[in-house]
Write a structure and sequence with these properties.
The structure is a homodimer of 219-residue chains. Chain A is an alpha+beta fold and 219 residues long. The first copy, chain A, has nine helices and four strands. The longest helix of chain A is centred in the middle third of the chain and has 32 residues. In chain A, helix 1 links the parallel strand 1 and strand 2. Chain A has a four-stranded mixed beta sheet with strand order 2-1-3-4, with helices on one face. Helices cover 55% and strands 7% of the residues of chain A. Chains A and B meet through strand 4, helix 3, helix 4 and helix 5 of A and strand 4, helix 3, helix 4 and helix 5 of B.
Chain lengths: 219, 219
C-alpha cells in the first residue's frame, strides 16, 4: 500500500500549491491508490517524521518496497510503475527524466526567488530593488522553455512525468502574467492542469487541508 | 561513445565549478571513457546547440542510446550503468536518487541565491539588506543535512550518486565557512572531494578551460 504525507493545514496562499500535489497527481495519472498520513506543523518537527523526511517538509512517501522523500524522486519512482508517466523506450524515458530535472533546477530555481519576493517581501526596500532582475531571469528561462516546446502539445510530444513536474512549477507563477500571457506556455499549462487526474489531485489536497481543528489556524 | 559538452573558457570564479564537472566525476567513478565537445560563449547560443541543451548551458550529453541535458538527469543515466554510483537493491537505489534531488532542490535552491549575492551583488544596497535572511535559510538546510548524515561516512552509508551531487552543491559554499566549519559536513565534503575520481574530473575541467584562444577571455 502507498502512503504519502500531507499537511492538515497551511496558510491560504499555499492551499493548492503544497508539493504533495505533485505526488497525488502522479498517482492519479498512474491509477494507483494511496492513503494520506496527515501531519500538522508540530509533528513535522518530531524525530519520527524527520527520519522519514530529513527537511521536515511534505511529501514523504512509503510503499511495500521503498521509503522516500523529495517530490522529484517520488515522482520518478511512481513513474517507473506506469507507462502513463514514462514511455517504455529507454531513450524516451531518459528525456522525460531530463524535463523533471529541468523543471526543478532550470526553472524552479529561478521562479522560487520571485515567488518568495511576491509572497513574503513585497514592498520591502530590498525587494523593490531586486525584483526586476529576478523577473528578467525568469522571463529568459521561460522563453527558452517556450522555444523548446514549440508547437508540440507536451515537451516530448506525449504527456510524461516531465510535463507533470513542469506544470507544477509554472503554476507557482499563476498570480503573474508571465506564463498566462505567453502564447506557447499559457495554453501548455492549461492543457496540463486541465487533465482530470490533476483536478482530482487538487481536490484531494484541498480536502486534506480542511482536516485541522480550528485551533491550528489560530496559532 | 560518450560525448559531453563543456566550455573552453569561463571567468576565473567559475573555473572548477562548471556543471560538466558533475558528469565528468560520475563518468570517472563509473570508469567510462568520454570525449568532450568544447563550445564557446557564442556557440552555446546557436540553434544546433540549443537543440542539444534547451537552456544554452553545459553540460549536454550524448551516447549510443540517448541525447540528454540537465546534470541531474545525466548523472542518473550514467549511474544506472555502474554499481559504483547506484546500489543494485531497488530500495537503496531509490534512496540514492532521493539525495540527488535533495542536493538540487532542497539545498542548491537555497545555496544559489547566496552565491549570486556573493559573486555578483556584494556591496549592493539590496544585497546587504537581504543577505542575512538568505544565509539563515542556508544554515537551516545545512543543519538538517548534517542531522541526516550523522556519523555515517556517506548519506546512505556507502558512496552513491547522491553524495556526488551533494558534494558539488556544498562546494559552491567553499569560500564561506558555512560548510568547512561544520563538524559533520566539513569532513563529509572533504571525504567526497578527496576521492581520486573527483580530482581527475576537476583536473580535466581545468584543462578544457585553457582551450580558448586568448581573444575569448578579452571579450
Amino acid at each position: 500500500m502507498i502512503t504519502i504525507s500531507a499537511y492538515n493545514w497551511v496558510p491560504d496562499f499555499a492551499k493548492g500549491f503544497v508539493r504533495d500535489l505533485r505526488v497525488r497527481w502522479a498517482l492519479e495519472e498512474a491509477g494507483l491508490d494511496y492513503t494520506v498520513k496527515l501531519i500538522d506543523q508540530d509533528e513535522k518537527l518530531t524525530p519520527a517524521y524527520r527520519a522519514w523526511q530529513p527537511f521536515c517538509q511534505v511529501p514523504a512517501y512509503r510503499d511495500d518496497e521503498v521509503t522516500l522523500f523529495e517530490s522529484g524522486a517520488i515522482l520518478l519512482h511512481v513513474a517507473q510503475r506506469s507507462e502513463a508517466l514514462l514511455p517504455a523506450d529507454p531513450a524516451e524515458r531518459a528525456r522525460a527524466v531530463a524535463w523533471v530535472f529541468a523543471a526543478l533546477n532550470s526553472i524552479e530555481i529561478y521562479v522560487e526567488p520571485l515567488a518568495v519576493i511576491d509572497l513574503f517581501h513585497a514592498g520591502e526596500d530590498w525587494a523593490k530593488q531586486r525584483c526586476p532582475q529576478v523577473e528578467q531571469a525568469v522571463r529568459k528561462r521561460l522563453a527558452d522553455l517556450a522555444a523548446a516546446l514549440g508547437d508540440r502539445p507536451y515537451l516530448e510530444g506525449r504527456f510524461t512525468v516531465g510535463d507533470l513536474m513542469m506544470a507544477t512549477v509554472l503554476r507557482i507563477l499563476q498570480d503573474t502574467d508571465l506564463v498566462t500571457s505567453d502564447p506557447v506556455l499559457g495554453p501548455y499549462l492549461a492543457r496540463c492542469v486541465g487533465r482530470p487526474p490533476f483536478q482530482k489531485a487538487l481536490a484531494a489536497q484541498l480536502t486534506s487541508l480542511q482536516a485541522a481543528p480550528a485551533s491550528a489556524a489560530a496559532r
